[in-house]
From TrEMBL:
Organism this protein belongs to: Branchiostoma lanceolatum
Record has Signal as a keyword: yes
Protein's name in the database: Angiotensin-converting enzyme
GO cellular component terms, semicolon-separated: plasma membrane
Catalytic reactions of this protein: bradykinin + H2O = L-Phe-L-Arg + bradykinin(1-7); goralatide + H2O = N-acetyl-L-seryl-L-aspartate + L-lysyl-L-proline; neurotensin + H2O = neurotensin(1-11) + L-isoleucyl-L-leucine; Met-enkephalin + H2O = L-phenylalanyl-L-methionine + L-tyrosylglycylglycine
Domain of life: Eukaryota
Record-level GO BP terms: proteolysis
Cofactor note: Binds 1 zinc ion per subunit.
SUPFAM superfamilies tied to this protein: Metalloproteases ('zincins'), catalytic domain (SSF55486)
Length: 662
């Protein structure tokens, strides 16, 4: 009834053709389960024998493995036969199969419409996005009603999970309101993406690369104030009323479906009882706050020395426009101002990249090479054919980077306005992490083609970039010539990392604290801006460089607000990526300090990562966390360990400083 070919000697070695019995009296789900087991066994056999050992002894090994697995296999079939699902569940499974296929086809169209608009902003393309969104809503509502007719109480966990996903919705029932919501969404994003600032001499500047470039490079206090303020004045006020309408409609949809507000639904992605997510991130923040406070005090002192004590007090909030980043979310662009040991070898590679003639394509190839080196997939041809890697000259586009899954034939793409510098090399790794996740879970059911939670999706590329950005690795790929081997160099290295990672944490936390309160009605449209700045001041210890009022709408100047993208995922990611990094480094056999680890070429680390990625969204995130780190919790001990030497150094530097900003 079954047969398998074994490896016969080195020359005629063949690993395929391992055929297993699949009894047809089993349900579709059971057959699928068996097929999955079969695949696992085959992979194991291939890895054990045929890839590694082209030797005769492989035959014996394979025989015994096959024998053992056949016993397990037959046992499994017997137990499944006894456990036959009920006719109801059979029907539900069949319904789900059709659902997943139709969902996939709709996702294809949805992705195409979004892509067309994001890479060519026109009224026509916007109208198409609205139409497709309305179709999707209509279809999901219909399917939700059908799904509710099943009594899922006796179904298996996997079937229940899918039904829960299908029936959790925040859609409005009224079609006019659905349309209004979709239209406001595209308008807000358009205001942001097409926003420009014109100067007295008639030249007009875009956010990317012009205004962001000024904030990153200029060291002129007034010029910085001008760029900071102009961007906010250009896009904030035109958005404010629309944003309030948008919030009201989202809340109405949530409430129609039995939720208190849209924030509850957003937090639902983490599958924790409401309130627990905020509790978890607050607890994590409390643990990393002492490190942030040290970094803040050190940077504040340096900025005060640079711009004068009249501009930057050494005891209070820091003006928000001096961090080299439009939103003060990452501070690495002012590394030159705060560098602890300027005489140590340079660690920023932006200039070298330009000198070596890097362009966007070469940067993407560099990133791809790393992913391949640990055994992840190369970018498919369609990726190179269809991605948008630089800003096109002839049309308006959404320049904020993104990765898109088109749900067929490994069609995956990145859209980005790449500039040749180290920051964008990092963003490329970030985006390619999304792509690797897409490719690794592409065989999952459509409903499960997502991250274990949204934070996992954000953490993949960043985890890889933690290796790439080590001076050791940058030297390996020829971007650094000299690497110091002393404590001063290490402090420089860790400080640069902290400017990107630690500085981000309170920003990553406050954005959705603001939105959760906006959704709950705690912060009303009259207080949008005050509420925003209260959180910026409290968590980040920064303040607006000029007085702001509630006519301003500074939240709108950050992409994720007009685009309606939840943000707590990034806070989660910035903690989790250090946990992942630590686990993968262990797998790669790294020993020594965590910040020196580079998992380049470690197939063991790659396999560990791949196993987690392949789960997609099929299980609650703590299980995925366990698969990669061995424990289930979001845990800041890895990031704290990583920065331990820096924290010690900062404490010493700050011993005479007043810490904090109240
Ligand atoms: C992350 C890393 C470094 C710095 C800063 C961050 C946070 C954040 C920021 O403020 O810039 N980073 C991004 O926004 C990167 C873009 C993205 O990859 O996260 C992108 C955002 C996006 C764009 C359009 C629609 C929705 C979200 N996310 C994705 O492309 C994405 C998200 C989930 C699954 C697949 C792709
Ligand atoms: Zn991302």
């Amino acid at each position: 009834m079954w047969k398998f070919w074994l490896c016969f000697g080195a020359v005629f070695l063949s690993c395929s053709g391992y055929t297993w019995p699949l009894p047809d009296q089993l349900s579709a789900a059971q057959q699928r389960e068996l097929k999955e087991l079969q695949q696992d066994v085959e992979t194991e056999i291939e890895e054990l024998c045929c890839q590694n050992e082209l030797k005769r002894c492989c035959v014996e090994k394979k025989k015994s493995l096959a024998q053992r697995n056949m016993e397990e296999w037959e046992g499994l079939i017997d137990s499944l036969k006894e456990l036959k699902s009920t006719p109801d569940e059979e029907e539900a499974i069949k319904w789900l199969e059709e659902y997943n296929e139709e969902l996939r086809q709709r996702n294809v169209r949805n992705a195409e419409a979004n892509w067309a608009q994001a890479t060519n902003i026109t009224d026509e393309n916007a109208a198409k996005v609205v139409e497709v969104t309305l179709e999707v809503t209509k279809w999901s509502l219909k399917k939700m009603e059908e799904a509710k007719k099943f009594d899922t109480s006796g179904f298996s966990d996997d079937v229940k999970r899918q039904f829960k996903m299908i029936t959790t919705s925040g859609s409005l029932s009224d079609e006019d309101k659905q349309r209004q919501l979709a239209e406001i969404g595209t308008e807000l994003e358009k205001i942001y993406s097409t926003g420009t600032v014109c100067q007295a001499d008639g030249t007009c500047l875009k956010l990317d690369p012009d205004l962001e470039g000024i904030i990153a490079k200029s060291r002129d206090y007034d010029r910085l104030t001008w760029a900071w303020l102009s961007w906010r004045d250009a896009v904030g006020p035109p958005m404010k009323d629309k944003y309030a309408q948008w919030v009201a409609l989202l809340n109405e949809g949530a409430q129609e479906n039995g939720f208190a507000d849209k924030g509850v639904l957003w937090r639902g992605a983490y599958e924790m009882p409401d309130g627990k997510l905020e509790e978890m991130v607050d607890a994590v923040w409390e643990q990393v706050k002492p490190l942030y406070t040290q970094l803040h005090a050190y940077v504040r002192r340096k900025l005060s020395e640079k711009y004068g004590a009249d501009k930057v007090s050494t005891t209070g909030h820091i003006p928000a426009h001096l961090f080299g980043n439009m939103w003060a979310q990452q501070w690495n662009n002012i590394y030159d101002i705060v560098v602890p040991f300027p005489d140590q070898p340079e660690i920023d590679v932006s200039d070298t990249m330009v000198e070596q003639g890097y362009d966007a394509l070469r940067m993407f190839k560099t990133a791809e090479e790393f992913f391949k080196s640990i055994g992840l997939r190369p970018m498919p041809q369609v990726f190179w054919d269809k991605s948008m890697l630089v800003r096109p000259a002839d049309r308006e586009v959404v320049c904020h980077a993104s990765a898109e899954d088109f749900y067929h034939d490994s069609d995956v793409r990145i859209k980005m306005c790449t500039k040749v510098n180290q920051e964008d090399l990092y963003v490329i790794h970030h985006e390619m992490g999304h792509i690797e996740y897409f490719l690794t879970y592409e065989d999952q059911k459509t409903l499960y083609r997502g991250g274990a939670n949204p934070g996992f999706h954000e953490a993949v590329g960043d985890t890889i970039a933690l290796s790439v950005n080590t001076p050791g690795h940058l030297k390996k790929i020829g971007l650094l010539q000299n690497v110091g081997h002393n404590q001063d160099f290490e402090i420089n290295e860790l400080l640069k990392m902290a400017l990107a990672k630690v500085a981000f944490l309170p920003f990553g936390l406050m954005i959705d604290k603001w939105r959760w309160r906006v959704f709950s009605g705690d912060i009303t449209p009259d207080n949008y801006n005050t509420g925003w700045w209260n959180l910026r001041m409290k968590y980040q210890g920064i303040k607006p460089p000029v007085e702001r009022t509630n006519k301003d709408f500074d939240p709108g100047a950050k992409y994720h607000i007009p685009s309606g993208t939840p943000y707590i995922r990034y806070f989660f990611s910035f903690i989790a990526q250090f946990q992942f990094h630590q686990a993968l480094c262990k797998e790669a056999g790294h020993d020594g300090p965590l910040h020196k680890c580079d998992i380049y070429e470690s197939k063991a680390a790659g396999t560990k990562l791949k196993n987690m990625l392949s789960m997609g969204e099929s299980r609650p995130w703590p299980e995925a966390m366990k698969a990669i780190t061995g424990q289930e919790k979001l845990d800041p001990s890895a990031i704290l360990k990583y920065f331990e030497p820096l924290e010690k150094w900062l404490r010493e530097q700050n011993k005479d400083e007043k810490l904090g900003w109240d």
